[in-house]
Amino acid sequence: MTGSPVALITGxxxxxxxxxxxxxxxxxxxxxxxxRGEARLRGFAEELGDPRGLxxxxxxxxxxxxxxxxxxxxxxxxGRLDTVVANAGIATHxxxxxxxxxxxxxxxxxxxxxxxxxxxxxxDALKExxxxxxxxxxxxxxxxxxxxxxxxxxxxxxxxxxxxxRQVTEWGIGVTLIAPGRVETPFWDSYGSLxxxxxxxxxxxxxxxxxxxxQPAGVDVNTVVVRPIGQPN
Length: 233
Fold this sequence. Notes:
alpha/beta, Rossmann fold, 7-stranded parallel β-sheet, 6 helices, globular
């Protein structure tokens, strides 16, 4: 295989995904980002000056057809795939006892099914490059919060990361779970306001994602929990 390495990032038009894309592009990678909002993706590409190494692909992270199409498009355009970053995620910011169930299905499908579909669609290509899977989880997948349905989806992602690692490590594929605490991103838009206290920036969290991706061949960093100073839980 020839050419610079290639990454596919779901939910890559804003927040953490966009920050990771920017850093990888700056490092000479070719990058494809997906998202459900075509206008947001277009705006992201224009903000970066429409670089030749960037593909924007509209699609739903919880649709296998959309994810498989994105992988196929990347392979056709770039001829290889070295890293996938399952970053797309949403939160309803409510609880199991008094929340609105109307939003839970989409949250579970996006946060749990979506990463599994990305792994399934990309695993053959990653075998060829002995590449990496990065799953963007959450501290909420390690610390229990009363009634938190979103947290339950991130506990599932914590399990998916290790279960995946145990299968794909024999094929030379690395798996990293990056579990951030509070990060200042559009994630909080549906919450109504940013939470109190110090928050990480998307670029600070992207530093950890890119660090894990760029580990030397044969090194597999499995779990990275990143909190802002001052977040106790």
